[in-house]
Structure formats: structure tokens, C-alpha cells
Amino acid sequence: MSFDVDIALAQGRFQLDAKFSVPSGLTVLFGKSGSGKTTLINAVAGLLMPDRGRVRVGQRVLFDSEQKIALPAHKRRLGYIFQDARLFPHLSVQKNLLYGQRFLPRSLGKTDPEQIISLLGLEALLQRRPEQLSGGEKQRVAIGRALLAAPELLLADEPLTALDEARKLEILPYFERIRDELKLPVLYVSHAVTEVARLASTVVVLDQGRVTQVGSASEVLSDPQIVPTGVRNVGSVITAQLLQHHVDGLSELSCKGIPLFVPRIDRPIGTVMRLRVAAHEIILSLKKPEGLSALNILPGTIAAIHSGGGPGALVTLETAAGALLARVTQRSVATLELEVGKPVFAVMKSVAIAPQDIGRDHA
After folding, report:
1. Which residues, 6+ apart, have CB-to-CB distance to 20 below 8 Å?
2. pLDDT at residue 177 is higher than 70
3. Which domains, and CATH codes, for the chain?
4. What does the alpha-carbon distance between residue 144 and residue 254 come to, in Å, rounded to a whole number?
5. Among 69, 104, 123, 130, which one is most buried in terms of CB atoms within 10 A?
6. By CB neighbour count within 10 A (0-12 exposed, 13-18 middle, 19+ buried), where does 221 fall?
7. In the chain, what are the helix, strand and coil shares in percent, each to the nearest 5?
8. How far apart are alpha carbons 272 and 241 in whole angstroms?
9. Best CA proximity match to 249, nearest among 265, 260, 233
10. Contacts of 39 (CB under 8 A, 6+ apart)
11. Quick check: pTM over 0.70?
12. d(CA 181, CA 41)
């Protein structure tokens, strides 16, 4: 189910004027703090009233200033996941989950609670109170409550911000399952490169209240002018199929016949995986290296070289795994006589690919 947003909203000196249309899937609103991400998602939710514009989800118009349509928040059929879980402390997990269903019209079919409880792994938590839950467990309950409100669109405003790295790693696979198994469109706010790389079907980049780019995670994360945290987090998003697990703790993937070794992935053999590889973790070689501790060597051809004002250069390679970005020095470009069309080998250590940078590719 696609959705369209075209809204203008003034808040003091800040002006939001954003327009985009995206297909079904998980759409990430990506940008620096203060770029307007939360303002936009709250306008879609009906928590803020735009000065003008239109919001459509599927065939339903939620807001249209010209036609004077402005559905109140509780009639928009949206699920909202906030940064903090906002659970009712006096209710059990089960009652928190079912709370939103109390307000659904009888004409609307209710989502099966058992399906959502199973999808989020909440079976053992149903009789607990919120104070008995970890941060990650609370957020899973909040996700389940939003899903059980039978939304047509799920909104998530930086839902992992309040969690530590271990809990974030715990929650990310559940958003992958929502994206792939429930086929529910999601509008997800984030400024975290890891979340964008793993989850996004489409990325909408916001800067100072304006949409500056709409594209794939691979396109957006390879552009140092867009990534909020700067050139060090520029990288590539590649896909490979899980081939086998090894007893030494590594999993082997296949990139069209080329092996790629990463820390163990707890997924079934045959799963197509999505990996984020930071550009600064790639070493380039003119010949296939031997006698290295690094296990991953991908042959490729130079597609582009971009030099900035400093000592660095970004080299784009075409490989069997897709486009791969390497950050090297301009001295290396000159010494190796790198140029477009030249064959090279990309070298990366297995441990350079962190578990949080490995996820299931979207169906």
C-alpha cells in the first residue's frame, strides 16, 4: 500500500515543506536532528495540523486542505510507536496489548492477537507488569499494542533511541518481520545509519524541513553529503545468500559464487541477507592478495572516483555483491594509478562487519 505526503507547516521560525510519494514497505525519514522528521510524522499522525497539503494512505485521504478534510488522530487508523514505550503501569502486558482494540469499530476486522504475540515473542511476558520488563521487552509490547490497533500505516518515531546497543540488536529483527511478513507500510524516523541500512525499503532524506532525496539505502548511505554523521559512516549496502555456518563462529555467505565470511548469523541457510560495509573498512589491491588474515576478497571494477577537499577519496566499485564503496587516500589513488574501468580487489576483515550491520534483505 503506497502513501503520499505533501504538507507545509510553520512552527515559529521552522518551516516544514515536504512532499514525497513512496510504495509499500518500510520508509525511513532520515536526516540530522532538527531537520523536521518528528514534525512531519506528527503531522501525518494528526497530532499537528498542517497549514496546507494532503496526506493519503492507500485510497484513504487523511488530510486535504483544499477539500477541507482533516481526520482526527483516532480515526486515521495509524499505529504510533514512540521513543519510550508509554505502557500503562497498572495493566498487565496482555491488557496493554489489547487496549487499542477496545476502540476499534465493529466493522473493522481485528488483528489476531496470537499472531502478533508470536511474531514479537511475547508469550512468556503476558502476565507481567511493565515494571517487570526490560527496556527491549517494553518496546516490543509497545510495538505489539500499535499493531493490534489494526493500523493501515505504522508510525515509529526513533523507537530504538532509548535502548542500549544490545537491546537495539534485539529489536531490529522484529521490524524486519513486520516489513516482510505483515506487509504493513511503515514510516520510520531515524538518524542512525545502522537502522537505515538494515530496514529501509525507501529512504526519504530531510534537511531543514525539505525533502532533498528519495532513494534506496544503498544510494543514500553512499553519499557523504547526506549521511548526518559524516564521511566516516559512508558505506555500502550489499546482499548475499547465507550458505553455511562454521564451527569457528563464522557464517559463510555467497555473493554470486564469491564467499564472504561474517560473524555468525542466526538465520536459516538460504536466507538472503543485507549487509552494511563501512567505506573506511575496505582496502584496495591491484592483485589478489595472499597470506592475509582478512578473509573477504571481492574482485571488482572501478566505476567512479570522487576526491574531496581533504586527503581522502571515495572509490566506487562494481562487484558481484553490488556497488561497493572504499575510502582511501588521494595518495593511494595516485600511487596505484586508480582510474575508472581498472580491475581491483576489495579486501575486508570479517570482524569489520558488526552483527548490527547484518539483517534480512526485504522480500
Report:
1. 4, 5, 6, 204, 211, 214
2. yes
3. 3-216 (3.40.50.300), 236-360 (2.40.50.100)
4. 35
5. 130
6. buried
7. 25, 35, 35
8. 4
9. 265
10. 9, 11, 14, 16, 48, 209
11. yes
12. 23
